[in-house]
Amino acid sequence: MAFAAPGRSPARSERAERTRQRILDAAGQSLAASGWAKTTVEAIAARAGVSKGIVYHHFRGKEQILEAVLERTLAEWDEACRREGWPEGESALQGLATMHRCALQYARDNPLLRAIFQLDPSVLLDMRRSAPVRRALEQFRAELVAAVRAGVESGELRPDLDVERTAEVVRILHLAFIDHLLNPEWIDASDDRLIDASLDVLFHGLAARPS
After folding, report:
1. Which long-range contacts does 53-59 make (Cβ < 8 Å, 24+ apart)?
2. pLDDT by residue (tens digit) across 137-191?
3. Number of domains in the chain
4. Residue 38, number of CB atoms within 10 A of its CB
5. Which residues make Cβ contacts (< 8 Å) with residue 195, sequence separation at least 6?
6. Is the pTM of this model over 0.90?
7. 20 to 30 A Cα–Cα from 209, which one of 52, 98, 111, 161?
8. Do 50 and 67 sit in the same domain of this protein?
9. How many angstroms separate the Cα of 169 from the Cα of each of 137, 148, 163, 191, 202?
10. Same-domain check for residues 110 and 18
């Protein structure tokens, strides 16, 4: 049986969590609309409809709020791709293609994720050093490793592939496309035929050769 922490009723804990999530919602909206520099604790509190004191009750400051927003956004990104599923009978290559397309579609449609990728690199690097964010990124990497390993074991992918590094190549492909989605001056990464071409090149490198 689970017990509430001393001095805090279940209802009070639920209210506190709802307030925390409202603050994160407000922070995400402010970041997407105004960018990092203009996203102040005052602006977050105003959007959330709470006082600055309430914000500081839940978070140490703006950086910790951003860390929590990034962690939650990465989890939602992963969940969105999981909802696409890996249909029964789908090959490893088809599954990797589904994962790639879903990652790009979420990045294309989500203004908060776009704002996060456009953060000052030093700010983003600090966020990526945090334990929760590192766990989320490692989970995504682990899913790619598992997908590639399953393809090798089934005989669909080349038996000589370095599974770990191949997963990193796929992850680099995701990030390269997302980078160009945000900065399309040189390459239009929203072009579906370009996405098809990238997957075609990738698949020719991964697929097992007929004996």
Report:
1. 54/19, 54/23, 55/23, 58/16, 58/19, 58/20, 58/23, 59/23
2. 788 888 889 889 989 999 999 999 999 999 999 888 888 887 777 677 778 877 8
3. 2
4. 10
5. 100, 101, 104, 177, 189
6. no
7. 98
8. no
9. 15, 11, 10, 21, 9
10. no
User: Could you tell me the two tokens for 43?
Assistant: 């602006």
CA distance 161 to 138: 20
73-101 pLDDT, tens per residue? 888 887 777 766 555 567 888 888 888 88
At 139, the amino acid letter reads Q
Q: Are 195 and 100 in contact (CB under 8 A)?
A: yes
Amino acid at 50: V
- Cβ-in-10-Å burial (0-12, 13-18, 19+) of 107 comes to buried
| Domain at 100, CATH number | 1.10.357.10
